[in-house]
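Hey, quick one: can you model this chain's 3D structure?
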Amino acid sequence: MTYIIGLTGSIGMGKSTTAQMFADEGCALWDADAAVHRLYAPGGAAVAPMQAAFPEAVIDGAVSRDALKAILAKSPQALAKIEQIVHPLVAQDRQAFIAATDADIVVLDIPLLFEGRGHKIVDTTVCVSVDAETQRSRVLDRGTMSEDQFEMIRAKQMPDAEKRALADHVVITDTLDHARDQVRAIVSEIREKLKNA
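Sure thing. Here's the predicted structure for all 197 residues.
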């Protein structure tokens, strides 16, 4: 039996670092964003259907995220069509990953877990969280986006307090050691459950 964790958290909360901590504990890790990158890459499963729907979105045999942004800026209603193409392919990728692993615990790293109702397909949910000030400084310290871009992304995401309220477990990522202790506690609790199942 494979036990499935849905891992989520807003931008700058430390989700990728926490996901790696689960992997370090022997969990198999599937990353939704990485799956989309695979689907968009040359030869990826999304390239042909995307080219049929939006010919200008495919550049050099790959789906261009910049081209998609431009399409969405011109016609926001294109999002539904893009999601119709991509979501089933992402679901297939996820199912194939779960089927192929022999790990006892699979962690699905899904940024929009609750927004996309992904929590319905997992056994338990984990939300990573940190105070708003730390979140802001982490994102801005990366030097990859402006304060305005950060605020725009944060405004689109479900508020952290709501995610925490919906999650079965919350991992506070104020320090690496604290986060790792919480991850280990969750993993050992699940393994205990599996042993007694």
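One thing worth noting: The beta strands are 3-8, 28-31, 58-59, 62-63, 105-109, 124-129, 169-172.
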